[in-house]
Design goal:
Length: 173
């Protein structure tokens, strides 16, 4: 019961994770395979507002561009999901993800620069109609209000895109 309460408290505080070791393993310096890192991943829905051109070995899609609605009803860029999608899951998008050009659905454009490896190149972005809702796992929000370590889990056909809001975060205490 104590362990369950400890883990729950970590998840609710949005901490990155918990490092532990097997009870029968010795304390030893360095990484010897005794330590286990459990990440506290969050799950949330976001509006798919576009996608990037494919790169590398994946020929069908680079990354999904994600957003949420603020209290004023405006779409706010939240980041990208570049892992987790397969050709099969992307084919489920059908017509809403066509290649026909659309205007950017954001009032404030997404940041081009990023502290992550790949900057967002707007000329390689295909904007879509904000009608699809994607469920993703992510580690946390960055200081510049972008999702960190995002993994696409699938589409949510049961939720209208207009209901997607940013989750309320609990303070780290």
């Amino acid at each position: 019961m104590v362990v369950r309460a400890f883990v729950r408290r970590h998840f609710l505080r949005m901490l990155e994770g918990i490092v532990s070791k097997r009870a029968d393993a010795p304390y030893a310096p360095g990484n010897r395979g005794f330590w286990v890192d459990v990440k506290c991943l969050q799950r949330e829905e976001f509006v798919v507002i576009g996608w990037t051109d494919p790169e590398g070995t994946r020929p069908w899609l680079g990354a999904l561009l994600l957003a949420y609605y603020d209290p004023g009803g405006r779409l706010v860029y939240a980041g990208r999901a570049g892992t987790g999608s397969s050709r099969r899951s992307w084919n489920g998008c059908g017509a809403p993800c066509s290649r026909s050009p659309r205007p950017m659905p954001l009032e404030v454009p997404p940041p081009r620069a990023s502290r992550f490896r790949w900057p967002l190149v707007l000329s390689r972005v295909h904007w879509g109609r904000p009608a699809l809702v994607a469920e993703v796992k992510y580690l946390t929000w960055t200081d510049d209000n972008l999702l960190r370590q995002v993994v696409y889990e699938g589409l949510r056909e049961d939720k209208p895109a207009t209901e997607v809001r940013r989750p309320v975060l609990l303070p780290n205490r």
